[in-house]
């Protein structure tokens, strides 16, 4: 080939052989290496590109093919670079064979005087052709064959079409093709065919036109704040595709993580001042290069400075108000607002957008001290001011009643609450199941105060209404009564204040970010740092639709029995249950196990608990809710139909309403109206293991084993080897006898994170299983990280358990509940969103999630190792309630667990919604009458103000039914629709729970479309609104997350049952026969070593042992791994640095002595650590004298920090309150709390300085 200097050329070579030969190149007999102008590439066809040809590139080029069998060479091709810009391309394709090694390889060499030849006869052609790179304007000569016979006929094609010959293309008489001033449309595949009398030869060449780079998106100047990220985009086109490189100040930029270079952009992380300057984007190819520049300016970071400060304002009630707060700073400041030193709670009425706080309608309780806080990473600036709300003047007829009515309401509520408390927690009483159900659902101390405030508020309004309705001191002729007309907004505000609805909520302190960044609080606060109360315990349920109350405020539909809805009174829940829900026949589900039901109940008790009313007796006269059949707060009895087949001697079934909370965290008042009653969720909304650990700090502390620093939970008796739950000897159930059969001895209730753990045996077994799982993890962690203290071990174990529950619920359980369609609606996890509200919806808790009741079998199966009933037998469901003695005395938890994963769930069939154990025999041991779960669910939905089923059809995207035939798609069973029509008479009257369970479940799911919609909504918000969701980046490391994805409930059962050694991999799915059970060793388990804390003073780290392996009793004084400085043998700190950076406690001093005394043993047990041991010995000798001095000062160093934030010296005592005294003991806080006996009078008095109320 003859090429002009400065052009480019490509040689192509292909070879075959076994093994596959490798290709290399020789230039003038010397091995050719790759450089800036010499480039090798290709797979089957090996190519050599020479760019920017120089005189020194002239010479012969040879292709060499080598493999383990041998080596062979192609014939040489000669390149001459001193000729004008005409290229004669001649290469032959005839294979070169090595006769001695016929199977080694075949090579198609580049060679002078021959074009590529395609040979079809041998089948060895490798697709070889000659690639010619040309620049626009070049002149090229393509020679077909040498020394052509005059009789040889030459023809050319281009891109498989006959070649046309425009003016700049000439075909010579010898068959050569001359192209002058080559242009872009001359690119393509050229084929020459030479036909003679003896042979036909075809040769191919591809001409590619080089196009210099050109920018179609050059980089642009930009200014970014210091510490942020900058992205410069640069895109170019050309042929060949240009390569983009970046430089600054003449130096190429590294691709090192902070500078990230991709094909189209340069990204700079953590921009600093030194990064400012001119950046050059260079697009380069063999056709040339182009450069484009952009200037990056970096604005320095500055703390916020408020330039507009809000001053005190007085605004009118019910007006719209916007408060502004403008600040300058870099990065741009963000804004947050506080009211009365608490984070402001936002809703549809109060919104914060940018620097503006807008009240759509100002209320009285909006008055207060406000503070705007502008902040960025450099600092904060604050602006405080007062907002006053002025009401319109006017006289209202309710003025004289407010104070006296409030006092009367307070007395009523306190009296009823005290009577109920005494009844439920009387040590001498014999408990019924109804009593136990009330006990475990009784509000906690904090929830009790919240519920009292709302009840006092509502009772005050009710008392005023009663007085005025009776004409008490007022002339009401021709005057229609309503709360609005009786009371002014000022009076309603006063009632809210007197009732306690205006009480200041405890300040939620999220300042301890060392803890809150890593671990959940027990009560769920500080999960959402923008709204710390989101998802926390003792908050109102969320609503998907506005509530439906009979009076628009707080009375359930059906409160007035004669009130008609769509022309007819609502049917009794008992009538609906007996006609539509209950069934004596049960069909087994051949796909799902009974464990599907049990996990649903267990995880439900991790998400919601609506406490019962603070009293189970009427506020008006103290009569019990099971003694009267009239609707009178808080009693809402279920009416029994006259023709009921079972209940013949009672007119009603007792029922108490759920506790409520003052709306919106402050008051239940909007201007000129009343906010509707909202029920209270007493536990955290998140799937966080609160059923194992509790939802308050006090509950969590009572569950921990504080006798050692091992991070364990308390355990109880161990009759068969493994521990059971501890008995509740000091808590809520301390005085309760959980043994209801008169022939059995007294037995306390079990203690767990949720008081409902004793409700039924299978639930108790699940609680026992997860107690053991926590202790198993904590034990493994202390073996792995013996330097961790008990608190760290506890929180890490709790964090892992919560993640395991989340994974099992979403990856294994929910797919069987929701089916493929529901899981598709749920969608994949896309990350944490702080704007999502994770609170439990009232519709989910009170209706949709109770669909699990349709899965309950009428029998609790208890199976032995042969999967046969144990000697004590299976249990009818009504005998499994509140009977923990059966776990202790009748085989432990294994028979119950086998009865869950080896027995099918009940299948939901038309006319088989609930088994009769639930509708006719519920709690029959305690009451010969027996309760009805179907009736309870319906009545609870009305109590909570749930709108009708038809409203939720519309909410979920279905058409509202105008007749019962409109329900046929979702409720195809004609008999079910017939019963619904006879009972309700109008589609708008159907209760949500009844309509939801009447729907036919979607394919491979357990729920119909309405409940699927509500359940998907809840589980999506629980996942996406949880900062500690286990898949949220940063919650766990990538390695830890990989391990957590191995978790299964089957593995938990294998690890924590008494002696179960075979189980199916997915315990929610039935096996066809026992051969499908797997040995436990085949069930995947997590590798806890991924939680190894690899630090200087760890005694174990993964498989290797560190130098402190002897000191398992030692505990680090650091709370978290990142607080420990990581040392290695090569960078051990100097004496002075060690003493100043790391305080020495008594636990540390023992380490220095022991390491010197036992160093000889370390030599034999820790290989390869000699150098480190010598360094430690040297350090110990230097520190010995100082350690003695520090021991003498031990008492001064061993200080404690109390809950009030103050530091106390060793042995110092302080009083937390009148009932609690704490003492600092060797750096640990120990507190004693006085327990008050039950007061003997009805109104005990509190005396300052004395703990217990006095009569």
What does this structure look like?
The chain has 1255 residues and is an alpha+beta fold. The chain has 7 domains: 71 residues, Immunoglobulins (Immunoglobulin-like, Sandwich), CATH 2.60.40; 79 residues, Immunoglobulins (Immunoglobulin-like, Sandwich), CATH 2.60.40.10; 82 residues, Immunoglobulin-like (Sandwich), CATH 2.60.40.10; 88 residues, Immunoglobulin-like (Sandwich), CATH 2.60.40; 253 residues, no CATH class; 399 residues, Haem peroxidase domain superfamily, animal type (Myeloperoxidase, subunit C, Orthogonal Bundle); 30 residues, Ribbon (Complement Module, domain 1), CATH 2.10.70. It has 28 helices and 58 strands. The strands form 19 sheets. Strands 10, 12, 13, 16, 17 and 20 form a 6-stranded mixed β-sheet that branches. Strands 2, 3, 6, 7 and 8 form a 5-stranded antiparallel β-sheet that branches. The protein has a 5-stranded mixed β-sheet with strand order 18-26-25-21-22, with no helix packed on it. Strand 54 and strand 55 form a beta hairpin. The longest helix has 37 residues. It is elongated. It starts with 8 loop residues before the first strand and ends in a 22-residue tail after the last strand. About 12% of the residues have low confidence.
Query: What is the correct CATH architecture of the largest domain?
Result: Orthogonal Bundle
Report on the biggest sheet: 6 strands, mixed
Number of strands: 58
- Output mean pLDDT: 80
**Head-to-tail CA distance between termini:** 117 Å
> Do you know the CATH topology of the largest domain?
Myeloperoxidase, subunit C
Say which CATH homologous superfamily of the largest domain is assigned.
Haem peroxidase domain superfamily, animal type
Gyration radius, rounded: 41 Å
Q: Into how many domains do the coordinates divide?
A: 7
Percentage of residues assigned to helices: 10-25%
Highest CATH level, the class of the largest domain: Mainly Alpha
Q: Give the count of helical stretches.
A: 28
Strand percentage: 15-25%
Which blocks of ≥5 consecutive residues have pLDDT under 50?
83-127, 393-398, 472-485, 664-672, 1096-1168, 1192-1197
Helix- and strand-based class?
alpha+beta
Report the principal-axis shape: elongated
